[in-house]
């Protein structure tokens, strides 16, 4: 599993999480899914200048909201039970509209059997346990619903039953996830080829146009509440215009 991190000044880091099927090595390799999770609100003009001319914009698959559950009950077993019970009740009330997931490099779905996920101790406060998870909802190819979906996510969390002394800290911004961004590779390559042919046609037959970098992995930036700009970091070179072909 390879983890790639992207980020520029003024832009929040994106991480790539691989979710592998556990049905055996062959099946796991065949059904391996690659999902990117991107935070931040939108691409800046400076970031845009650093991207190639050809890109495509696609809606994310899921809109996510990050939550940190914290309990400061004195007894460790009690506070862990409080957090886990809060998660269990949230998962039970999620229905078909929402899912709870967690993890840094591997995103795992929380269900009724695995809600007792590992918790962390707070380094600055003794007798405090915490964990960060996501609640997510499918965008369903309708980026115009992002604002409505964000309200629904926050309403769901706001209505969650807190057990004991559990508190829920909600992130100020949502995140986006996109499954298998490499599925858009040939769409991008086609767009780059069409752009190159158009440039060659405009400049004349004497110009030589070459492309490098098409073997690179797809990269991305968030351009709206629900959409990602996908691109391959290629470079174009134009030579010998007006000089005739080299002898």
List the helices and strands and how they pair.
Blueprint lengths: L4 E2 L7 E6 L5 H6 L2 E7 L5 H5 L6 E4 L2 E10 L4 H18 L5 E4 L5 E3 L9 E2 L7 E10 L7 H13 L8 E13 L5 H19 L4 E5 L6 E4 L4 E5 L3 E5 L8
Antiparallel strand pairs: 1-2, 2-3, 3-10, 4-13, 5-9, 5-10, 6-7, 6-9, 8-9, 11-14, 12-13
Keywords: Signal
Protein name: SIMPL domain-containing protein
Molecular structure report:
There is one protein chain. The chain has a domain of 117 residues: Alpha-Beta Plaits. The longest helix has 19 residues. The protein is elongated, with a radius of gyration of 23 Å. Helices cover 25% and strands 32% of the residues. 22% of the residues are buried. It is an alpha+beta fold. The protein has five helices and 14 strands.
Give a quick rundown of the structure.
The protein has helices at 25-30, 45-49, 76-93, 146-158, 185-203; strands at residues 5-6, 14-19, 33-39, 56-59, 62-71, 99-102, 108-110, 120-121, 129-138, 167-179, 208-212, 219-222, 227-231, 235-239. With 247 residues, the chain is of the alpha+beta class.
């Amino acid at each position: 599993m390879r983890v790639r991190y992207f980020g520029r000044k003024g832009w929040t880091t994106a991480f790539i999480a691989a979710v592998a099927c556990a049905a055996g090595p062959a099946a796991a390799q065949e059904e391996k899914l690659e999902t990117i999770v991107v935070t931040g609100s939108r691409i800046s003009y400076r970031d845009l200048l650093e991207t190639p001319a050809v890109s495509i914009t696609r809606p994310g698959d899921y809109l996510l909201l990050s939550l940190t559950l914290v309990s400061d009950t004195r007894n460790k077993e009690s506070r862990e039970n409080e957090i886990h019970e809060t998660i269990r009740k949230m998962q039970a009330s999620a229905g078909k509209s929402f899912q709870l997931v967690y993890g840094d490099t591997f995103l795992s779905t929380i269900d009724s059997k695995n809600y007792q996920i590992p918790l962390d101790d707070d380094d600055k406060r003794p007798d405090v346990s915490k964990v960060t998870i996501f609640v997510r909802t499918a965008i369903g190819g309708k980026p115009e619903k992002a604002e409505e979906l964000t309200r629904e996510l926050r309403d769901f969390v706001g209505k969650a039953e807190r057990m004991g002394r559990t508190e829920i800290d909600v992130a100020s911004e949502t995140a986006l996830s996109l499954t298998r961004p490499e599925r858009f590779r040939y769409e991008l390559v086609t767009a780059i080829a069409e752009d190159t042919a158009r440039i060659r046609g405009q400049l004349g037959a004497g110009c030589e146009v070459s492309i490098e970098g098409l073997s690179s992995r797809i990269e991305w930036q968030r351009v709206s509440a629900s959409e990602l700009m996908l691109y391959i970091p290629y470079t174009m070179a134009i030579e010998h215009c007006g000089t005739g072909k080299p002898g």
